[in-house]
Amino acid sequence: MEKNVHETRKEALSQLSMRRNTLCQKLSKIDLKITDVMHYLENEKYDAVVMVKLAKQLKDLRKERRVVKVELEQTQALADVIKTKKLDTFAKKDYTYRTDVLKDLVGVQHGDKWTH
């Protein structure tokens, strides 16, 4: 019975590792898309309509990126649970804004927190 549990844990860790690799590749592709949009914003001239479309595209990419990052975190936490049997790893995450870049636009400033 002990060998069976060990094999099951080993297989689960292997599957989690493969999923993590897939997610890392997906994250990399999203990052490349974000970089393209950011370089376009930096280097091209555009009107307000195009700017709004670019902002929406950037927002959609950032949301997609967040979903992948959350799954990556969950995958790692699950692997940690399997390795150590630690059960309190699925906690909410906080983000603390590091600059005042959004202060004038939306009122978010350095030190404000966001929980997801």
CATH topology of the largest domain: Helix Hairpins
Q: Domains counted in the coordinates: how many?
A: 2
Given helix and strand content, the structural type is mainly alpha
Can you tell me the CATH class of the largest domain?
Mainly Alpha
- The strands making up the biggest β-sheet line up spatially as 1-2
Give a verbal description of the structure.
It is a single chain. The protein is mainly alpha-helical. The chain folds into two domains: 2-85, Helix Hairpins; 91-116, no CATH class. The chain contains three helices and two strands. It has a two-stranded antiparallel sheet. Helix 1 packs antiparallel against helix 2. The protein is elongated and about 65 Å long.
Brief write-up:
The protein has 116 residues and is mostly helical.
Task: Give the tags.
single chain; 116 residues; mainly alpha; Helix Hairpins; 72% helix; elongated
